[in-house]
């Protein structure tokens, strides 16, 4: 399967969010990545339900919603209601991860699990069959524009081995510091989905940048 590109609207111009989403509609992007932060799980606050619903009204591509929040189980149904197609929760925020994954699936959304840089992929072994997307954080969550963590390549390889061992068809998503230089190596290690925020939205031609990421060959 060709790899997927999921630009993160956290790096968009909030003063012209609708126009930026329209740009993504017209680009080679596959998903629209939406980072939700609560100021508790991470030291920042981003989008709430009204903004996500507004994005959904314009978006013509699936919305990949990444919950960097505590107690995500309280809000799963609401995120689905405002347009989330994939809902990813952090393993570190879910003491009852299996239950939360089943809750997400019950809404009809795809279930994702995100891992902080310090969290080993081996902790997913007992729930990997219930996961549609694993989001490996390649920066510390909470802010855009951070430096890519090199150990990410090794984590991708470890996760890929777990997927092969268990026969899972789960997608591997990489979020943080993705650019034209490291993308080929990420894909070669086994990544399926690349999230790119600052690299896309700070470029002179975001549509061209997305196209270049989409057409990388390994």
Automatic annotation (TrEMBL):
<feature type="binding site">
    <location>
        <position position="33"/>
    </location>
    <ligand>
        <name>a divalent metal cation</name>
    </ligand>
</feature>
<dbReference type="InterPro" id="IPR011060">
    <property type="entry name" value="RibuloseP-bd_barrel"/>
</dbReference>
<dbReference type="InterPro" id="IPR000056">
    <property type="entry name" value="Ribul_P_3_epim-like"/>
</dbReference>
<feature type="active site" description="Proton acceptor">
    <location>
        <position position="35"/>
    </location>
</feature>
<comment type="pathway">
    <text>Carbohydrate degradation.</text>
</comment>
<protein>
    <recommendedName>
        <fullName>Ribulose-phosphate 3-epimerase</fullName>
        <ecNumber>5.1.3.1</ecNumber>
    </recommendedName>
</protein>
<feature type="binding site">
    <location>
        <position position="35"/>
    </location>
    <ligand>
        <name>a divalent metal cation</name>
    </ligand>
</feature>
<feature type="binding site">
    <location>
        <begin position="142"/>
        <end position="145"/>
    </location>
    <ligand>
        <name>substrate</name>
    </ligand>
</feature>
<dbReference type="InterPro" id="IPR013785">
    <property type="entry name" value="Aldolase_TIM"/>
</dbReference>
<feature type="active site" description="Proton donor">
    <location>
        <position position="175"/>
    </location>
</feature>
<comment type="function">
    <text>Catalyzes the reversible epimerization of D-ribulose 5-phosphate to D-xylulose 5-phosphate.</text>
</comment>
<dbReference type="GO" id="GO:0004750">
    <property type="term" value="F:D-ribulose-phosphate 3-epimerase activity"/>
</dbReference>
<dbReference type="Pfam" id="PF00834">
    <property type="entry name" value="Ribul_P_3_epim"/>
</dbReference>
<keyword id="KW-0479">Metal-binding</keyword>
<feature type="binding site">
    <location>
        <position position="8"/>
    </location>
    <ligand>
        <name>substrate</name>
    </ligand>
</feature>
<dbReference type="InterPro" id="IPR026019">
    <property type="entry name" value="Ribul_P_3_epim"/>
</dbReference>
<feature type="binding site">
    <location>
        <position position="66"/>
    </location>
    <ligand>
        <name>a divalent metal cation</name>
    </ligand>
</feature>
<comment type="similarity">
    <text>Belongs to the ribulose-phosphate 3-epimerase family.</text>
</comment>
<feature type="binding site">
    <location>
        <begin position="197"/>
        <end position="198"/>
    </location>
    <ligand>
        <name>substrate</name>
    </ligand>
</feature>
<keyword id="KW-0119">Carbohydrate metabolism</keyword>
<feature type="binding site">
    <location>
        <begin position="175"/>
        <end position="177"/>
    </location>
    <ligand>
        <name>substrate</name>
    </ligand>
</feature>
<feature type="binding site">
    <location>
        <position position="175"/>
    </location>
    <ligand>
        <name>a divalent metal cation</name>
    </ligand>
</feature>
<feature type="binding site">
    <location>
        <position position="66"/>
    </location>
    <ligand>
        <name>substrate</name>
    </ligand>
</feature>
<keyword id="KW-0413">Isomerase</keyword>
